[in-house]
Fold:
Amino acid sequence: MTRPRACAATGVAAGLAAHLGWPVALVRAAFVVTSFAWGAGLLLYLWLWALTPWDEGDARPTRRAPVAWLLVVASTVVLVAVWTQSGQWYFTAAASWWQWYAATYVGIGLAVAASAWATLIDRPDPARGPRHELVIRSIATVVLAATALELVFVVNPEANGRMSAVAVFVAALAAVLGILLVYVPTLIAKWRELTDERTKRIREEQRSEIAAHLHDSVLQTLALIQNRAGATSEVARIARAQERELRDWLFAGDAPADSDLGTDLRGFAADLEIDFPVTVDVVVVGEQRERASGELAAAAREAMLNAARHAGGEISVYVESTPAAVEVFVRDRGPGFALAEVPDDRLGVRQSIIGRMRRAGGSATVVPGAGGVGTEVRLRFPGERGFPGERNGAEALHG
Amino acid sequence: MAERVRVVVVDDHSIFRSGLKADLDDSVEVVGEAHDVESAVAIVTDAAPEVVLLDVHLPGTAVPAGSTGGAEVIRRSAPAVPGTRFLALSVSDKAEDVVGVIRAGARGYITKGSSGADVSRAVHAVASGDAVFSPKLAGFVLDAFGAAVGETAQASDELDRLSAREQEVMRLIARGYAYKEVAAELYISTKTVETHVSAVLRKLQLSSRHELTAWANARRLL
Structure:
């Protein structure tokens, strides 16, 4: 048995009706009738309310009946009756004075119940919310305050010998206590919020502590593994990839979310290190205006892939953005190759790097690395304020 | 490298210390080890080694906020041993840590991922008075001194900007060139490259350029 999430007041009657296959009206009537038998129906209702779960789902329960309003109106009616009738109650001997007290306490109880319902049950309800809660609470407060004042200043127990001053004072005290109770749910909510915040802070502290610890211990060990295993071994590659992942996690939030050229090439370098026995050092200088989707990025990736595939070992990637141009240097220390010797049908270098850069208005050169070791690919793309003709393509003659 | 360079290794992880010791080649002699700021200061002042291999992050009491254990070791022990040079060795790529320890007086910075041969070479370089820059540190220097936006020092004694030649040297180092290769590329001697690098290191230590501190805090070096 479950309670429907969109219900009249609590969903108990509807849930029970669905469970038994009875009409809802019959179930409601049964609750009311059996309540007269020493409150059996009411007790069963409360028991079911407390123990029956909601229907499965994510929607927040919403209620059709304005229960808080009904309670606050009932409370107002009862208490206003108490004020206006108190004069007569003194003198009508037939009405016993305990009825007057009972009415007062019931009214106070209803006001407290109304605000409790508004705070605890209606507040998360998407159809009502905090504004509704504030209104209900204000009305309950006003009604209770008026009752307390009336009891203290208007009712004159001396005029009626059957009412003790003490009893009236206790009733007034109850009204004041009622006002306090109206605000207890808010205080509880506030307190809960405060505890939540503290828990969050502690968790955050713990996280940074763990981060610091990992930084000091695990990263060190990963560095050591890379050291001992040799830069190109399988173990070192895995350790390096792991180090990158851990580092990304530790400093999550530091890096800008949008992908610029430098960020993109770093990510690509990390992927290369997993797929090939290489270590790639990416250094980025200057403000990154170039987008990761551009031709330059594609050419740079191709150059890095070439270096990883054919040279291996250590690869240095340097990205520099100046107002005049964006340049990318990819340098490896492999056997090197002469562009002229590459067969024409090999599209990698000729098409993906040099052709692509030329079409996009930049330039690319492939030269032997410094000291004749390895290969260096230089990519250059004029910036927005690029100077026309300035060294564009001129580098192709170099080396 | 006829004579062995005397080195003290400071790192709070014994596993890393022993690993590093095993990796260093024969030209380097480890004369002491320390695991925190206090013991490091005591051993460095006592042994007076030529080079201290110093972890940036070290535990220790009374390390002021905003500083690191490594920087603190340099600050406390350097006055007592003027002949000793410090080489920072870290897994941290955070610019604030790196710049902090360089500005405290370290003669160079290398990552812990470097091989034993690399570390040994760096130890010799530092011992002979040179500065050791990793490509990442060179990249950061170019960034912090505004080289990418075209700021160039006009006078040689200017601390807040790099000269055109220094920028070229830094660029090549950032591109992964060794000093020898930089020298060949620029048609200068290796000694001249070392002079330029030392000049950059001096600027890095003495400059009041606000990027050096502000940028270091705002972004990490990677």
Q: What stands out?
A: The longest strand of chain B covers residues 28-34. The CA atoms of residues 71 and 100 of chain B lie 7 Å apart. The interface with chain A takes residues 11-13, 15-16, 19-20, 23, 57, 91-93, 111-116, 135-136, 138-139, 142-143, 147-150, 171-172, 174-177, 180-182, 184-185, 219-220, 222 of chain B (CB under 8 Å).
